[in-house]
Amino acid sequence: MAPRKEVFEGVEWRIRVAADGSSEALVPATGLARKAWLGIKGLISGFALKVRMFVKKAWDVGTNDPRKVIHCIKVGLALAIVSLFYFMRPLYDGVGGNAMWAVMTVVVVFEPTVGATLYKCFNRVLGTFLAGFLAVGVHWVASQSGERVEPFVVGASVFLLASAGTFSRLIPSVKSRFDYGALIFILTFSFVAVSGYRVDKLFELALHRIFTIIIGSSLCILVIMLVCPIWSGQELHSLIVRNMDKLADSLDGCVTQYFNQSGEGTNSKEEATDNKLQGYKCVLSSKASEESMANFGRWEPSHGQFNFRHPWKQYLKIGASMRSCAYCIEALSSCIKSRSCAYCIEALSSCIKSENQAAKLIKQHLGSGCLKVSSSTSNVIKELAETVKTMKKKPSTTDLLAEEMKSAVQGLQNDLKTIPHLLNPSAIPGNKTLETACLEATTPTVTLMELVPVVTLASILIEISGRIEALVDAVEELAKLAEFGINDDKSKHSKMTDKTVSDAKQQTEGTMKALQRV
């Protein structure tokens, strides 16, 4: 029995016997140490899983946009170089022991784009320079006033200049260009003026700080412009082109989906169409990005195809033209809550999802006209996007597509005018013939709720086409101000235009055939 005791010495078994004599299964008792180990093991495995997921997300961020990794490397490079002023004794003594201000400047002003970095560097140097010399002047005036009056002079100057600097940040024209400079001015003046009350060599302190900030800012400018530069102007240019393409695809896909609800599409095609329909949301959410990029682009020097005085403000007008749209009509109050082409497309999406389906007769009658207006309008937008992308004018092609859009709109308006005669053949002027009587007998009854969705869609399309004309004018103004070149490769561009138009016609014909089968 002794060996068996030794075997079961580490495990204790418990048997629970009920009152009626039945017993439960044997369960080994878990000790406190084992419970603690299992808890610690679970915490470690959970922490390791979170770290693994974080590393995976970070890797995905870096692979999706390598420029973020390059920006991190540039920041590290700039900090490593500026740290030499702190580590090397000759450089450290040359700036009076204030080398840490250069390191802080690099950390604060270094931004991903060249324009943003130049904006911060210029504002930091200018704000520090003005604040430093004003603080030295106030200190001299206060020191000449006597020991009793000196604190009041310094306090009053801090109050007045800090209040004035804060108020200047609320002025829109100052806020857009010198907001960061005003903040640095308030900070530097308050620091130098207040510390000057206890420091004897105030002028040297201000001078050394200005020098170290100039050193840090200059180093940031060199690194950001020489090592894989990212230009704010180029980013704005690409953003406008992408938004125009997305707006065109969203408009074309929305109308095509509305008139092609026969259920023959595959899941992959439906997913692709849904992705196109979501493109207008990028237009709606890009206003802040456009304004920020345009503001930073004005600080950048000449680069690539963009001159120093490139009309970046005109890009904002193009973005506003893509968003801006007048009210549709008073009767369609549900569709006139917004004033942008993208919001009109969103209203089209709501029409698609409406439970009140238009009558097949009205849908077939207006389908061809709506699809022509949609395809011609999207072709105009794509042509404008190509003009902005290549920075070369194609006036003949743009005018041709614009005239085609106007012709399609006129045809759709004529179709809308014939709806009453289509639904009520007896209203056609003239004597009622046998053919008219047969037409009355075969014409289905259409309720108002069945008629509203498709008529609403047609009205919105007409409104969008009118707003596209403003977009054409904005792009033409940009081409004039930026002095776009003329596209000499007419044959290649003509083939591309013909291919675009033919693809649109094939898509329209296919949709109409599907609509007729329904």
From TrEMBL:
<keyword id="KW-0407">Ion channel</keyword>
<keyword id="KW-1133">Transmembrane helix</keyword>
<keyword id="KW-0812">Transmembrane</keyword>
<feature type="region of interest" description="Disordered">
    <location>
        <begin position="492"/>
        <end position="518"/>
    </location>
</feature>
<dbReference type="GO" id="GO:0034220">
    <property type="term" value="P:monoatomic ion transmembrane transport"/>
</dbReference>
<protein>
    <recommendedName>
        <fullName>Aluminum-activated malate transporter 10-like</fullName>
    </recommendedName>
</protein>
<feature type="transmembrane region" description="Helical">
    <location>
        <begin position="149"/>
        <end position="168"/>
    </location>
</feature>
<dbReference type="InterPro" id="IPR020966">
    <property type="entry name" value="ALMT"/>
</dbReference>
<feature type="compositionally biased region" description="Basic and acidic residues">
    <location>
        <begin position="492"/>
        <end position="502"/>
    </location>
</feature>
<feature type="transmembrane region" description="Helical">
    <location>
        <begin position="125"/>
        <end position="143"/>
    </location>
</feature>
<feature type="transmembrane region" description="Helical">
    <location>
        <begin position="180"/>
        <end position="198"/>
    </location>
</feature>
<keyword id="KW-0406">Ion transport</keyword>
<dbReference type="GO" id="GO:0016020">
    <property type="term" value="C:membrane"/>
</dbReference>
<feature type="transmembrane region" description="Helical">
    <location>
        <begin position="69"/>
        <end position="87"/>
    </location>
</feature>
<comment type="similarity">
    <text>Belongs to the aromatic acid exporter (TC 2.A.85) family.</text>
</comment>
<feature type="transmembrane region" description="Helical">
    <location>
        <begin position="99"/>
        <end position="118"/>
    </location>
</feature>
<keyword id="KW-0472">Membrane</keyword>
<dbReference type="GO" id="GO:0015743">
    <property type="term" value="P:malate transport"/>
</dbReference>
<dbReference type="Pfam" id="PF11744">
    <property type="entry name" value="ALMT"/>
</dbReference>
<keyword id="KW-0813">Transport</keyword>
<feature type="transmembrane region" description="Helical">
    <location>
        <begin position="210"/>
        <end position="232"/>
    </location>
</feature>
